[in-house]
Amino acid sequence: MTALLLTLLCATAVAVLRMRGLFAAVMLMGIFSFLGAGWMLLLDAPDVALTEAAVGAGISTILALATLALTTRKAKRPVRPSALPLAVVTITGAALLYGTLDMPRFGDPEAPASNYPQPSYVERTDHDIHIPNVVTAVLGSYRGYDTLGETVVIFTAGIAVLVLLRGSRKRRPAADGGEDAA
Amino acid sequence: MIESIFDSALGLYNYWVVIFLMMTGFYIVISRGNLIKKVIGLNIFQVSVFLFYITVGKVSGGTAPITAEGFEVYSNPLPSVLILTAIVVGVATTSVALSLVVRIREAYNTIEEDEIYAQDDPR
To answer: Which value does ipTM take for this structure?
Structure first.
């Protein structure tokens, strides 16, 4: 199951790279997010999978489609020689691969990330907050300020989108593409 | 030697897949001139980073971090929390980027990078 998902993820990413029709590329981006959400579900993160499927695959795709409606659907064939970007990507990728050799193995219960903080949120949540879902407890209570900051970011982005698109409405009506509802 | 390579391949393959996806997104961003294509590449890069974090949080034999009777081992909830925040922030930045693309199209009547440069600096 995991192997199938990972193969599909890689195939989708490469397909986006080779695609020149922007509509198809946007759709593949949505599929990519959705496959990613599937993998997250297999990795025991159902909350993230739900959010990724709804927000990442849903709203991002809608926003991108709205942009296509306001601009164009066809990308030009790339004219620049692609040797330099390929070299940059290969070197960066090789450096990252080298970095993973020291990473804890997949699923290792002794990994530092799984052992701090002590006592873990899983042990404390039931006593402190009385709800079973630890992710919700951390999001809404232990790290509530982060979530407040997140809403500030959304608010700022919403204002930025409104300001950017208001200028364009003066010259062309019906330019209403980027409201974000997250 | 061969055995240790095989061993690390089993334990690290998901990081390697994530790095491949990440580099594909990065390549789209730096090699394609179309601005919407660049935003799509950035999005792929972003989702790869999310997948990386979620991968780090998995504990083998564990279950989703929702406490219930009869389960002892839970995967790490902290990466999930961080990435929930990051997904929403990612959509916010994507929407700003896309509206910038709309504005660039209004101003230059194109969303191809080289044509925009040519208009800015006619030679």
So the answer is: 0.91
Q: List chain B residues with CB under 8 Å of A122.
A: 65, 67, 74, 77
**Residue B15: per-residue pLDDT:** 92
Q: Angle, to 10 degrees, between the axis of helix B35-57 and the axis of helix B2-31?
A: 150
Minimum distance, in Å, between the CA of residue B121 and any CA atom of chain A: 18
Residue B90's CATH number: 1.10.287.3510
Among A65-69, A112-116, B5-9, B98-102, where is mean pLDDT lowest?
Answer: B5-9
pLDDT at A75 (0 to 100): 78
Contact A48, A40 (CB under 8 A): yes
pLDDT digits 0-9 by tens, A58-74: 999 999 999 999 888 87
Q: Does B111 touch chain A (CB under 8 A)?
A: yes
The total number of structural domains that make up chain A:
1
> How far does B120 lie from chain A, in Å, by closest CA?
18
Q: Which residues of B touch A3 (CB under 8 A)?
A: none
CA distance A158 to chain B (A): 7
Q: Is residue A93 domain-resident?
A: no
